[in-house]
Design goal:
single chain; ABC transporter involved in vitamin B12 uptake, BtuC
Length: 320
C-alpha cells in the first residue's frame, strides 16, 4: 500500500468530519452550529453518515464473498425481508396503536430486524447443503428478494389507502425521523464493530477473493468464513434497515468507486469504503432537503437517481 493511498484515507476521514459539522448548516436558510434547527439536522446527518458507512461495507462484503460485482444486501433478499417485516408491523401498529415494545424498541424496527433475520436464515439454510455453490446461494438470495418484494406489494394491495401510503413511504427509505441522539447512536457501535471485524479479517478477505481453491490451499476454511461474513453482515444490514428503511444503491456503487481510488487491497479498501459510503449518503440526504423545500425527497430516491446513471458511466468507462 502506497503512502498516496494512506493519504487518501486520511483525507476521506477529514471530509467525513467536515460533513458531519457543516452539512447540518446547509438548507434554504443557513443555521449556525448551536441553534435548535442545526441540532435537528445534525441528528439526521449523523444517522445518514452511520447508515451510509454500514451499507457500503455490507455491499463490499457481499461482492467479495460471492466474487460478483452485482451482489448487494438487496440482491440477497436481506433488505427486502427487513422491509416486509417493517411493513407488516407498520400496518399492525396503525391498527392496534403499538408504537413501541415495552417503551424502548419501536415495533417497526423490531419487525424489520426479524424480517431480515428470516431472509438471512432462508438463504443460509439453502446454502448449508453440501452441493450448494456460491452461484446457487446468490440465486437463492435473488429468489428470496423477489418473494419478499411480492409480499410487500400484496400487503399494500390488501391495506387501506392511508395504510398503503405509509408502507410505501417507509419502503422509500430515509433518515428524516432522526431527531435525537438515540435515533442514530444505537447504530453507531454496530457499524463500528462491523468495520473493526472486517479490518481484522482484511488479509483473509484478500485471499478469499482469489478463489475457493487458492483460499483453501492457504488455510482458509471457505464455507465457515463465508457463512460468518454472511451472518454478521446481514444482521448489521437488518439493524440499519430497521431504522432507516431500505436505501438502495449505496452498497452497489460505493465499493466500485472505492476500488477505482484505492485498489483491491481490503486492508485499505474497507476503511475507504466505509468513509465514502458515509459521505455519499449524507450528501444525498442534504440534496434531498434542498431540491423540494419545504418538502423533501426521500434519500432512497436520491441515491437511485444519482447512483444509476453514475454506475452506467463507470461501466462504459471501464469498457473503453
Amino acid at each position: 500500500m502506497t503512502p498516496q493511498r494512506f493519504l487518501l484515507s486520511a483525507i476521506l476521514l477529514l471530509v467525513l468530519i467536515a460533513s458531519a459539522i457543516s452539512l447540518p448548516c446547509v438548507g434554504q436558510t443557513f443555521y449556525p452550529p448551536g441553534t435548535e434547527i442545526y441540532w435537528y439536522r445534525f441528528h439526521r446527518t449523523a444517522l445518514a453518515l452511520i447508515a451510509g458507512g454500514g451499507l457500503a461495507l455490507a455491499g463490499l462484503v457481499f461482492q467479495a464473498m460471492f466474487r460478483n460485482p452485482l451482489a448487494t444486501p438487496y440482491t440477497l433478499g436481506v433488505a427486502s425481508g427487513a422491509s416486509f417485516g417493517a411493513a407488516l408491523c407498520l400496518q399492525t401498529t396503525m391498527r392496534l396503536g403499538l408504537p413501541s415494545l415495552i417503551g424502548v424498541i419501536p415495533v417497526v424496527s423490531l419487525g424489520a430486524f426479524l424480517g431480515a433475520s428470516l431472509a438471512m436464515g432462508i438463504v443460509l439454510a439453502l446454502s448449508r447443503r453440501r452441493d450448494t455453490t456460491t452461484e446457487q446461494m446468490l440465486l437463492a438470495g435473488v429468489a428470496v428478494n423477489f418473494f419478499f418484494s411480492s409480499l410487500i406489494v400484496l400487503l399494500q394491495y390488501l391495506s387501506a389507502p392511508h395504510d398503503a401510503f405509509q408502507i410505501l413511504r417507509w419502503t422509500m427509505g430515509g433518515v428524516q425521523n432522526a431527531t435525537e441522539v438515540a435515533d442514530w447512536f444505537r447504530l453507531l457501535p454496530i457499524v463500528l464493530l462491523l468495520m473493526a471485524f472486517l479490518a481484522a479479517q482484511s488479509r483473509t478477505m484478500n485471499v478469499f477473493v482469489t478463489g475457493n481453491d487458492r483460499a483453501k490451499s492457504l488455510g482458509v476454511h471457505v464455507e465457515r468464513f463465508r457463512t460468518l461474513l454472511f451472518v454478521i453482515t446481514s444482521l448489521v444490514v437488518g439493524a440499519i434497515v430497521s431504522v432507516t428503511g431500505p436505501i438502495g444503491f449505496v452498497g452497489l456503487l460505493v465499493p466500485h468507486v472505492a476500488r477505482l481510488l484505492v485498489g483491491p487491497d481490503h486492508r485499505l479498501l474497507i476503511i475507504s469504503t466505509g468513509f465514502m459510503g458515509a459521505i455519499f449518503l449524507a450528501l444525498c440526504d442534504t440534496l434531498g432537503r434542498l431540491l423540494s423545500h419545504p418538502a423533501e425527497f426521500p434519500v432512497g430516491i436520491i441515491t437511485s437517481l444519482l447512483g444509476g446513471p453514475f454506475f452506467l458511466w463507470l461501466l462504459l468507462k471501464r469498457k473503453t
